[in-house]
């Protein structure tokens, strides 16, 4: 028995409404099967469920067909949660990846960091990383790809006068290219939240310091003889003469 492949695309109207998420599409049909001179008519029914294009927690909950997802990532481009920026660790690495599978991140038109804590010490904390697609050395690779990495370093305004933690957000916009080679779609890059804190320093020990041990010096031995006491003189009494 030989097989075959049936392909097709549902109409865009099925995905344009948020209410369509969670609903089902049934594809059905019938075809003839011939084997050993006998013919049979078989029916076909396949049910598909419409889900959000959200491929991970790093994509928005939008039902848009094309998305630019983002997260803080390590040197191996793996998303990492709970990273903290400090004065000695201010480098920021953001991975931007397209959704759904097969699409690519085209141009990154703009990307910036903004303080969201509301504290007066950092009220003017705003840092442009990419503007009008420049500088290109802030994003790798330079050409469209499924995953592109944006790197920068927090400027001093985000780190000055820190009192507790401070929240900043990385935002931007760009173009996602569909897998069919058509025109790209301008989208907002999913926001990434950054936590900024001072370094945690260990508290000094409160246990009392032990007093230094004083070792008395060892006297040097002397070769001088030990003085002996002088004996008192012995008094001899005279012997009396014998009488006749």
Overview of the structural elements:
The chain is mainly β. Helices cover 0% and strands 38% of the residues. It is built from no helices and eleven strands. The chain has strands at 24-35, 38-49, 67-72, 84-85, 91-99, 104-115, 126-131, 139-140, 147-153, 166-177, 185-196. The strands form three sheets. It has a five-stranded mixed sheet, with no helix packed on it. A hairpin with a 2-residue loop joins strand 1 (24-35) and strand 2 (38-49). The radius of gyration is 43 Å and the shape is elongated. The protein starts with 23 loop residues before the first strand and ends in a 48-residue tail after the last strand. Residues 211-226 have low confidence and may be disordered.
Helix run count: 0
Radius of gyration: 43 Å
What is the rounded distance between the termini?
172 Å
pLDDT < 50 runs, ≥5 residues: 211-226
- Tell me about the largest β-sheet: 5 strands, mixed
- Output the structural class: mainly beta
**Strand fraction:** 35-45%
Which strand order do you get reading across the main beta sheet?
4-11-10-6-7
Overall, the morphology is elongated
Mean pLDDT: 76
Helix percentage: under 10%
N-to-C SSE series? EEEEEEEEEEE
Number of strands: 11
Q: How would you concisely characterize the structure shown here?
A:
The protein has 244 residues and is an all-beta fold. It contains no helices and 11 strands. Helices cover 0% and strands 38% of the residues.
How are the secondary structure elements laid out?
Layout (H helix, E strand, L loop, with lengths): L23 E12 L2 E12 L17 E6 L11 E2 L5 E9 L4 E12 L10 E6 L7 E2 L6 E7 L12 E12 L7 E12 L48
Parallel strand pairs: 4-11
Antiparallel strand pairs: 1-2, 3-5, 5-9, 6-7, 6-10, 8-9, 10-11
């Amino acid at each position: 028995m030989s097989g075959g492949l049936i392909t097709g695309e549902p109409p865009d109207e099925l995905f344009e409404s948020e209410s369509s998420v969670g609903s089902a599409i049934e594809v059905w049909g019938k075809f003839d099967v011939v084997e050993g001179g006998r013919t049979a008519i078989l029916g076909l029914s396949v049910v598909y469920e419409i889900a959000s294009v959200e491929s991970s927690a790093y994509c928005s909950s939008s039902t848009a067909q094309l998305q630019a997802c983002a997260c803080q990532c390590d040197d191996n481009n793996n998303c990492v949660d709970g990273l903290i920026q400090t004065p000695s660790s201010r480098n920021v690495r953001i991975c931007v990846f397209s959704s759904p599978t097969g699409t690519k991140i085209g141009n990154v038109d703009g990307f910036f960091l903004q303080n969201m804590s509301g504290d007066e010490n950092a009220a003017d904390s705003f840092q442009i990383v990419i503007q009008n697609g420049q500088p290109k050395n802030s994003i790798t690779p330079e050409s469209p790809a499924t995953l592109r990495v944006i790197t920068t370093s927090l400027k001093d305004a985000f780190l000055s006068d820190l009192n507790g933690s401070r929240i900043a957000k990385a935002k931007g916009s760009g173009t996602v290219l569909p897998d069919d080679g058509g025109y790209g779609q301008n989208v907002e890059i999913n926001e990434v939240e950054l936590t900024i804190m001072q370094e945690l320093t260990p508290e000094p020990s409160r246990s009392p310091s032990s007093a230094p041990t004083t070792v008395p010096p060892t006297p040097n031995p002397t070769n001088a003889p030990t003085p002996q006491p002088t004996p008192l003189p012995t008094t001899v009494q005279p012997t009396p003469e014998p009488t006749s």
